[in-house]
Amino acid sequence: xxxxxxxxHVVVFAFPFGTHVTPLFSIINRIASLSPDTHFSFxxxxxxNNSVVAKYSxxxxxxxCDLSDGIPDGFVFSSGNxxxxxxxxxxxxxxxxxxxxxxxxxxxxxxxxCLVTDAFFGFMAEMAEEMTVPWFACxxxxxxxxxxxxxxxxxxxxxxxxxxxxxxxLIPGMSKVQISDLPEGILFGNLDSIISQMLHKMGKSLPxxxxxxxxxxxxxxxxxTNDLKSKFKQLLNTGPFNLISPxxxxxxxxxxxxxxxxxNQKPQSVVYVSFGTVxxxxxxxxxxxxxxxxxxxxxxxxSLKDDARTNLPDGxxxxxxxxxxxxxxxxxxxxxxxxxxxxxxxxxxxNSVVESIQGGVPMICRPFFGDQRLNGRLVQDVLEIGVQVExxxxxxxxxxxxxxxxxxxxxxKKLTENVTLLKQVVHRAIxxxxxxxxxxxxxxxxxxxxxxxxxxxx
Length: 458
Known about the structure:
42% of the residues lie in helices and 14% in strands. The chain is of the alpha/beta class and 458 residues long. Helix 8 links the parallel strand 7 (211-214) and strand 8 (235-237). Helix 5 packs across helix 7 and helix 11 (283-296) crosses helix 16 (396-408). The longest helix has 25 residues, at 84-108. It is globular, with a radius of gyration of 22 Å. The two termini are 26 Å apart. The relative contact order is 0.12.
């Protein structure tokens, strides 16, 4: 049979901050492997692209393309303005993206057939309409957070004068979510900041996308998922991304010997601690956590940046060398999949939450900002697979109380049972005939507008 030419040109635009680049890069590579005759131009800043390319391999039909970061030559950042880099990038993004598209078309000789971008780029709705191509928006977090951004105007109109403990029970699936759980920029915080305006525009633009695909699985929060399906043209849960489309590491890293250390620990005995790549608890919370570990003598594996180690008590690492290890980086997915880990003390970033679920590990949640409070509420009160620390943050007694719940009480056994069941659900979702796998195939067909060339899921 003569092979048909389904050649197309998909342009991908990743948001270069936080943990946005790798999830989109990984799922694009999975789609590219299913449609090898389609060309993919993956756009992001040089800095972000280098961070991905240095660690992960890409499919031969994925071309990495650099865009301007919007920072003028010689520009001096203002002290205390942590958002200035994002502001400069977003101001330059529409023009630099247009210039990048022109260059990609000229280089490949292929006109653009569709746009696949981070959902943060709300201006893509107008650009796709102008170019008369489909737009597919990627939300790298949970359905619960994208729902809050979609309902921003409704929340402001309905709950503007409400107390922080009032429930968002008028929104489907939000009966256990409180006003205080909302991300900044919806009802409190600086509503005029670049991030707030960007997310507000995004919430209004997503119904215009030809499909929104998210880093979750349908069985996790079906009420919210079904509500969003009625609001968007198409909603596809295609996650967890790291399971459905695991990035291919250039070299398998474990430079600090985390896995060999875990191999010497008892089953479900270790506290794994990591607060992600962006947030670090203030010094007094690091002190409280250190004191809790010394008081309870429980094994721990702590991922802590080198510059934060100075906030640990003098002699802590030496005194606890037979109890635990403090390292600047861990292979988190492998750690959470290890049978020695009994609980994960986390900031509740979405990637960390789904990695804990797929490892079957209950959580102790210490959220900081953004969607982390929503995720913590989901973990504790909706899914019942973890507990949250006291609202004020980490204290010695608060940490000890949470550890006692997980390791010493019947409630802790129930948390472990619940997350073990959810682990089974998520692993079924990524198998052939599973919900996430089926949605991935549907997304690939939409993006490539073609019959799939390969149906082997590896």
